[in-house]
Design goal:
CATH architecture of the largest domain: Alpha/alpha barrel
Number of strands: 35
Strand content: 25-35%
Helix content: 25-40%
Mean pLDDT: 94
Number of helices: 13
Largest sheet: 9 strands, antiparallel
Shape: elongated
Distance between the termini: 39 Å
Strand order of the largest sheet: 7-8-9-10-21-16-15-14-19
CATH topology of the largest domain: Glycosyltransferase
Length: about 625
Amino acid sequence: MGWELTGNHAVAFPAISPKDGGIARVNVLHRASAGLVEWVGGEDAPLLAPRFRVDGEAVRAASLEWERLDQWIPRFHASLGDGLHVRGTLVAPAGHEPARRGAVYAFEVENRGGGAREVEVALEGVWLRTLRLVATARAFGRENLAWRAGPGLVLETGDGAGPALAIVGGGGEDGGYVARRGPLEVEGETEVRAPNGEPITLRVARRLRVAAGRRSTAAFFLGVGAERDGALATALTLRRIGPTELLRAGRLELARLTRKPAAREHVALFTRNLLFNYFFAVARAVDDDRFYPLVSRSPFAPASAVFREREALLWSLPAITLADPPLGRELLLRCFEQFAHRAGESVHYVDGGVLAPGLALDGLCAYVVALDRYVRDAKDDTILDEPVVQDVLREVDDLLFSRLHPEIYLASTDVLPSGDAADHPYVTYDNACVRAFCDALPRVWVAADGEAPARMAGGAEEVAAAVWQHCTVEAEGVSLLAWSVDLEGEAAVYDDPGGSLALLPYLGFCDVDDPLWRNTLEFLRSSRYPFWLGDQPFPGVGARRHPRHCALAALCADLLGPRLEDALALLARLPLDGGLACEAYDPRTGAAAVGRHHAALAGFLAWSLWAALEAGASGR
């Protein structure tokens, strides 16, 4: 199913049914759990879905028609019959205030008939499971608890010790709050408990009297917190602000974040992925209120709640800085503070610990490359005065120096950008990142009095020369850049989409007119390369993990090079799920095939589209 989604930095709604507007899943980032905690509905019943009764009779909202306000706020229009129409809007207001830790689901009922009507609007459904998502999903806690607290319901996770979701109604008259396990129902301030995996039935309702020719609004305010008191307080604060103001303020904030490239083509795709990256590739933890980068807050993305330096620093950070430079600064400092003590390790938990060991050379280089780009893009060199920044620069400089071959100025890696083990230790793309590291180092290094220069200082040209000398190969009578070498005669011809050789000019390693690089790119985008799926309706580059599907990261790389026009034309035809980035698409249909709703990759797509559209406006 093609889900709708929305969210802000506190709470995500990754699965909203386009059939009935039902919310299937809600999640928050929970630092103490090192990942996402998610409330999940039943197999046949969503967690919370809008339901309607007119003059005491249940009616079904017919023929929902959807729109997205500002490419982010989902809204549906539907008929309730007999001249009654409903408009439902789910707003998770953007902003950094604690009062934004939640959302409002507002329903405006319009009576176009001839007499007054009694309309009950409810959110009802089934809370079946609570999940914890890190690289994979598993049950979170043995019991789920539903608690009636005067004005609302609170859903507590982790046996009552985890984060909580509160639901409070507003508008019209109170139609009741119900949480039931079998024949049991919440009364007063008692709790309903059920083993995680057994259903708790939920219902929160409001009653409206809608006069002929008039409109009335019922709203449901959803607050999240580290525990039930905080969640309920947030929901009540949202109710005090009201749905109209939350929508107004949310749309103003989205307008502040949105950028309009000079070239108008693909603007909707650009905006959609820019906002998706902004809200789903970083999150503010519900228990410590700090920002953390991750792959994606969507459970449909691969290894969603982990940190990888390439994705956070090279994919998400440029897009977030484009939308919101202050948040870009906060994100960059968070990476330096939280993850750099184990810089370059393949996969981290969101709290900074190492999940999967093995040095990824491009991730190690990303700290300096991203810092240099941020200073340029945000025009903010004050970040270089932060002590943690200079401390980390010295640590990664020493670590990178230790990875150099004893005689040849090339650095080794254990892990490829894809996460696969390296065939050979010396990878061309990674050493292009090393060259970018060396080139950026003098611009970001602030030397103390009497301090020795950086160990990698002045190494950019030596790295480049070593690559040209040692990382080339003959294939079918053509000289190419090898993907990797062992410096003992073995080499691989390959292109990992997560760190494509197509990006070498973008990294400043060579010009787009360099004949050896152009030979390489033409080879990799031809039938001579076994992973090129160019004879399909939606052509692209596959990879070892998914050889029959086309990697979207490779298409993003093409946006930054001489294949820009082909890449733009393909993007115009590609039926991305909800307009959102996926890890790989089917070359026959163009549909998302692997890693749907990949928020970090959405940042790379948005930023590369921005670069392409701006280049188009200037005549390329």
